[in-house]
Amino acid sequence: xxxxxxxxxxxxxxxxxxxxxxxxxxxxxxxxxxxxxxxxxxxxxxxxxxxxxxxxxxxxxxxxxxxxxxxxxxxxxxxxxxxxxxxxxxxxxxxxxxxxxxxxxxxxxxxxxxxxxxxxxxxxxxxxxxxxxxxxxxxxxxxxxxxxxxxxxxxxxxxxxxxxxxxxxxxxxxxxxxxxxxxxxxxxxxxxxxxxxxxxxxxxxxxxxxxxxxxxxxxxxxxxxxxxxxx
Length: 231
Hints:
This protein is of the alpha+beta class. It has helices spanning 10-19, 39-52, 68-79, 128-135, 153-162, 218-222, and strands at residues 4-9, 56-58, 64-66, 82-91, 95-105, 108-114, 119-125, 165-178, 181-195, 199-204, 212-215. Helix 1 (10-19) crosses helix 2 (39-52). It is elongated, with a radius of gyration of 20 Å.
């Protein structure tokens, strides 16, 4: 599988999922029935769009075949045993927010960047470097020398008020199935502060009730997606 980039909507994702036999997707919501619209009309519009994108083919007997790239993408989005949710807030020249979901199964990754309430930019890849470049494009790691030995919460507002920064939350989830019902379990969560001129920090709550940001280097930051694939 090579690297495949695409743009899609939650409706298209669920339409492809339905064709492939999935009744739900992880961290993607779509509920057209709440609008009162005829679901068959919605389905026909979505399949027309998917055919135009060359993601869906239909023979004369009405049998539908999904492109290999989107088969792989939906399989990850629908049945991955683990995934990450990355939420970033950056204040540099402009203020930007971003939300990514990263799905993983062995060496295969799917990244969905949430563009708005229904649109996504996707990346299907086995290239971990492409994964990290995509996820942290808007909140890149800063190689600056650490200015502070640690940052306590009371100092955070003052520091971020005068320095360009990115604040990133990363939560890792796993899926569990019991009695034909699937549940999500948050395995761990981490927060990172990247100061353009002051270095990178990670939130530690081991020694302080309110937590404190302590310095982190590039190899430790890169380790986030390392050695955590599902066997």
